[in-house]
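Re: [ENG-882] Designed sequences occasionally contain unexpected residues at chain ends

Forwarding the minimal case from QA. Structure tokens:
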């Protein structure tokens, strides 16, 4: 009779242990101590849930013409006494008779979509260029960074205004309205990539001479694998901080372009286009059409910037105050 060898089962970390590690981490400890971060994160989470689930939380659909009545236009919010105010619209209505609360939720979803995808595009471009410039150095580094300097000499709005205005003039306003979302994402994304490229380049210059990179080179790993599998994960902290701030900047850029008439069309309202469409009525007494979406935009951008500042402090040990 042969002895059966003892088989030691492999123990995999369960979700409970991972949750315990997270709750004991420095990140969670700092988050619980910072009331501003807690409030900002809670407000941002609520805004994201409301905007993503706009179809569930909005009492009306601003895209459904059967739910819009022009006779309901410019009705004030429920807290303003008015003979025409029947209490159906919490924040009032806009000039087209759409429920402002519902339109803000749908508009915030469009603004967040533009902000997130524009930042994703600029992050991809900036990370690739920053890795190449920092890792290879030399003439390639000089060429790419001079190109970034030229890009930085033009503001985002200047580049976007030129490109979008030329597109409208060349292909017509009707085609532009159909492609407005994609155009805004591409233009804002391309205009802001140098922010990522410069940050990643500086991090790569600090990492590429360390022992783990030299060891990877000695065993014959390809440059692409070293850059993306070894160096890039060690540069994620500044990327997270930049991304938080850049999403807010992209939303502001979209709102500015919409206010200038180069953003989302009125039929597909973003927060910026809502502010723009209501600006003509602000002096006629219908101030809520512009002011309330403006407040929503300010709150959204503010909580993102506050979270970005908190992430910067937490992920930078030099700023830790104990």
């Amino acid at each position: 009779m042969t002895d059966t060898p003892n088989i030691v089962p492999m123990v995999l970390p369960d979700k409970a242990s991972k949750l315990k590690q997270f709750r004991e981490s420095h990140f969670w400890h700092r988050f619980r101590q910072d009331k501003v971060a807690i409030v900002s994160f809670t407000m941002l989470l609520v805004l994201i849930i409301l905007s993503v689930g706009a179809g569930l939380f909005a009492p009306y659909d601003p895209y459904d013409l059967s739910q819009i009545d022009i006779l309901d236009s410019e009705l004030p919010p429920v807290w303003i006494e008015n003979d025409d105010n029947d209490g159906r619209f919490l924040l009032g209505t806009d000039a087209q008779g759409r429920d402002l609360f519902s339109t803000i939720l749908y508009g915030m979803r469009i603004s967040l979509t533009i902000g997130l995808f524009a930042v994703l595009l600029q992050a991809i471009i900036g990370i690739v260029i920053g890795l190449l410039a920092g890792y290879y150095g030399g003439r390639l580094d000089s060429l790419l960074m001079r190109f970034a300097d030229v890009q930085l000499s033009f503001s985002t709005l200047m580049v976007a205004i030129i490109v979008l205005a030329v597109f409208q003039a060349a292909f017509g306003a009707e085609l532009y309205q159909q492609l407005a979302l994609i155009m805004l994402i591409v233009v804002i994304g391309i205009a802001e990539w140098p922010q990522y490229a410069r940050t990643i380049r500086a991090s790569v210059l600090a990492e590429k001479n360390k022992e783990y990179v030299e060891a990877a080179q000695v065993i014959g790993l390809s440059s692409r694998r070293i850059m993306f599998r070894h160096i890039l994960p060690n540069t994620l902290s500044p990327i997270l901080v930049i991304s938080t701030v850049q999403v807010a900047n992209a939303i502001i850029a979209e709102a500015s372009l919409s206010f200038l008439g180069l953003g989302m069309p009125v039929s597909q309202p973003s927060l910026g286009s809502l502010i723009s469409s209501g600006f003509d009525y602000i002096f006629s007494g219908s101030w809520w059409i512009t002011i309330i979406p403006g407040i929503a935009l300010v709150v959204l951008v503010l909580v993102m910037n506050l979270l970005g500042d908190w992430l910067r402090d937490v992920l930078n040990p030099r700023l830790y105050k104990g």
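QA comment: On inspection the terminal residues look reasonable. Confidence is low (pLDDT under 50) at residues 8-12. Proposing we downgrade this to a documentation issue.
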